[in-house]
Amino acid sequence: MTYPPPYGHPGYPAVGRRPTNSLAIASLVCAFLFAPLGVVFGHMSLSQIRKTGEEGRGLAIAGLVIGYVIMVATVVVVIVSIVAVVLLARSLESFDAENFGGGGVDRIPHSAPPLPPFDPPATLGANCQYLATTEPPSRPVTPPEVGRASTTPAAIPAVLVTDVGDIGLTLDNAKAPCAVRNFTSLAGQHFFDDTRCHRLSLDADLRALQCGDPSGTGTGGPGYRFPGEYPGNQFRLSDPALRTPMVYPRGTLAMANIGPGTNGSQFFLIYDDSLLPPTYPVFGRIDAAGLAVLDTIAAAGVSGGGQSGRPAHGVTIESVRIG
What we know:
By secondary structure, this protein is α+β, with helices and mostly antiparallel strands. Helices cover 31% and strands 18% of the residues. It has a ten-stranded antiparallel beta sheet with strand order 4-14-2-3-12-9-10-6-5-13. A two-stranded antiparallel ribbon has the order 1-7. A two-stranded antiparallel ribbon has the order 8-11. The protein is rod-shaped and about 115 Å long.
């Protein structure tokens, strides 16, 4: 008995199924796991299939398409994420500046007006008063002479000798004779000698080094207080402008206080344009060399970080020269 061959048809050779290219399978799998590798395997698989005639072209093409789609989607997601992070950072900076940049002064729009032109009041320097406070002086000192203060000479030179460098001043006796008398009196009694400038402000509204407190706490003073002069004396007491911040320009020397009529010994060395109500008496200017010293102090920042506090670059007033 004759049996037919197990495969095919009589008279024809057997035909087997072509194998599937292994790189095509790898391409599809890797497209989901690591898209770039799936793309590489896909191109390699197509090249092999063209040479060997193996199966798997559809798998290789699917691996390529999926790999490229995932790679493009990943790039888009990365770009969108970077843009979102940048926008969020800018938004947070803006929010922080608007809500936490005050440092004790209400946030002021940058369109604030300049200080008013000086119009000498009829009573300028007519009756300087230095009234005792309930707090004792931080260092023994005698209050200045009360009564009339001369407005001549119009300008009086002075120098803050510090361990960081000299800060040259021009005291504006023509505009603020009572404040200048106070400052020169304290300097003559060595009230400022060997005192540390206790506060540096980097706030958007107040960029100044604050000095004049021998206690170094920010609460000390000479044991007396005196009223303000320019620019407050350019307004009526009922004028709302007294509560409106104005630009105190870079290089301004002004009294620091806790309200009208509370001037004592503390003062601001303003190293950049600042925005304050006109209740901080201006009594002088800082020279270019002094501003360079202040810029160095400001660049070092606040001790421990933050926008206001003890300067990281400590500053001690060693003495004050008048004249």
